[in-house]
Amino acid sequence: MRKKLVAACLLACMVFTTTACGSGSDSKAASKSGSDGTGSALFTGELEENVTIQVLENDTAISEGYFQELIDAFNEEYKDKGIQAVDANMDQYLDLANDGPYGYGPDVLYQANDVIMKYAEGKHILPLPVEDLDCYDQIPESAWQAYQTEVDGKTYTCGVPVNVQAPMLYYRKDLLPDDWESTWDKDSDGVPDMTENWSSMYEYSVARHSEDSSKYGYMKSLNDMYFASGFLFSYGGYIFGDNNTDASDIGFAAGEAEKGANVLSQLASAMNEDCIDDTITTNAYSKLADGTYFATISTPDVYSTFLAELEKEYVSEGLSEDDAAAKAKENLVMTSLPQLPESGDLTDGSTEMIDSKSMGGVNGYAISSYTKAPNACLEFVKFATSYEMTKLRAETLGVAPAREDAAEEVGGVSKEIYQNLDNGNIILMPSITEVSQIWTPGQTFFIDLAKDVYRPESEKKYTSLESMKAGLEDMCNQINEAITTLQ
Question: Most Cβ neighbours (<10 Å): which of 5, 141, 356, 367?
Fold first, then answer.
């Protein structure tokens, strides 16, 4: 029986392309106009009853208790149908492509868009009738596009966006200078200048280290392509052409991307050699907590880790656990990335400021092609992406909802991230397999850029915008060679 079901699902998925994912359509209207081809035909049967759905969730959602609340609520709602959702109890990085055909794998999976769409290319997940979901009009077009593929003029959607990941600035409010309101708030808006623009952050970083050589301002490892690439995007760089679907067009050196490289080089000069490798990435939690670092960049999902480290630090200073928790929440600030100088020179006080762009991702739900209960699985996805459950996930885990109504309700950082996604300042990771080839060449370039700051003057490689442009072009060539070799 299972083989017949698998065969039927795979046959239905034969409409999928075997090469590229990511929508080529201009809007969600394309999905609606092709609604007969979005997968709704797979879900027209009667709701399966007395079935158990295996759900693969994010490890953090499990450890923080959100997932248990989700499945308890779902199971209560559908108990009269005998439908029960359970933890698949599998590694969150399970390989559905290899395990699914042999009957090992979840019915529903929660993953990043690039992972889910990798499975779509292999027909391992089902196209979904997303226009029937109540979240459809609440999620921005760019988030839906991360889960779309176009075949014969019709747009197929293979996942439902749940939350957005993007770099955020973390800093310690209690490490600000006592006179920051008079010396570091030039526009008198009540917000420290160094958290509003990178030029002021650089200036403050230099000043803080000069005052105490054991202290630093902004600290972040440059070897992380995910975080570093946003500086290139801010000046016209991009990942792939044609809305991130054309891997033959590699754009990290496009526009004036070299200005972004120059900003990174200047920021590195105010750090130390730990910025060359993973050292800062791994010690940022403890170093921010003990006051060595003033600020760093990370994603919203690790807010609780930063908070826990700061709480421990306050306890070690003599505060009670309750007081330490309250003080940590007061002083740990997570906010949008500062603006950048249009000139790409952090010491240029006359230049205009532009918005920072960043690489981001969208996590969401998909349904396995190997499930015996696609309609029951769809009910679970509907339930899990509802307003109430999306809001609860955001409040419990500190993530940013992909739903506009939930983001508005949660407010704060969630609303900021949603707005940044909606206005194009978050560049979502491509949903095509070639994206796997950008990381190593990118890391190699950024490591070299960081090392250059600490080389003797006679050995420096990146002494001008032109030399940085050449380095980025070489990086693009390496990515192209890796993609060509892969193919």
Answer: 367
